[in-house]
Amino acid sequence: MRSRRTTVGAALGSAVGLILFAVGCSDTASAVKPASSAHTSTAKPVVLSLATPMGASDEFRAFLQNVRTLSHDEIRISAEFNAHHEEGPDFEEQLLIDVQSGRVDLAALGSRVFDIRRAPALGALTAPLLINSFDAEEKVLRAPVAERMIREVDGGGLTGVGLLPGSLRRPFGAGTPLLGPEDYKGRTIGIQESKVADSTLRALGAKPEWFGAGSPVADFDGFEHQLVSVNGSRYDEAGMIGTANVVLWPRPIVLVANSKAFERLSEDQRRLMRDAARQAVHGAGADLREQEHSALESLCARGQKFTAATPAQLTALRRAVQPVYDQLSRDRRTKEYLDIITALVRDVPAEPPLSCKG
Question: 137-147 pLDDT, tens per residue?
């Protein structure tokens, strides 16, 4: 799929323009104080380029709208969607190289790419079975710890701008569902590039295999993905059964900038960008849940099946992934983040089980 580019703040006939127009009436966007009608400026707008491997996603549309509103339309973002899409399992790594080289000013991509070698402490955000609901993810990313975690990205020509909530990743199994640890043993499971995901599948006795965005999954014994992408890529046609009540991890979004491009902004503009990201977190969980519900309706209409794990199987899963926590905790900062996140989400209910019944 070819990438496409459009400028936020351009004519509303463009794809992103339509998305942002819709966001202007949403609860998420309403958290931002609207621009004063008395504000006038003759300054030439600053145009920043942003690339993402995702499509015209609702996951960061509030950030784009917030930048536009807070800056009185004096900062505009030219968004390139589907960047490096379907170019192999390292598509997010390729996008990071684009940011470092200055090909683009900003990128929006999964936090998982940083746990490989750039910012391993971000692996705490995707620790297995820890953040298992949209409410829990939003709570973590609204907490002070998120401001510390985004600084882990800084360095090597990159500057962290903000963390946004993303979709929940769930397991799908071929023939039989992936319920307890015994269902993973010896099976080849498709995952997207992540050290934490790789370690988790190995702890469960499976063989993880990285695959690119939109790549086929029919040859795997199972895979992990978010419902919206399962629906969009029609992965349900592979006939795999989803686990109704297991969220392996979320896919938080990192907004990262080319350091030189970010430093060319004024101090107020840099603060505005970070405020736009911070304010976009509020209400994101409800928006993401609505998107998932819509995807679930489409999948159920096409015959997708879901099976729930038993309480004993859930307990066995948590016990089986303990080696991943032990591995993450060897790093002092990662352990500190894990402890904080665990305390934050302890009393947040898990996402309700998926069901096609009613």
Answer: 999 999 999 99
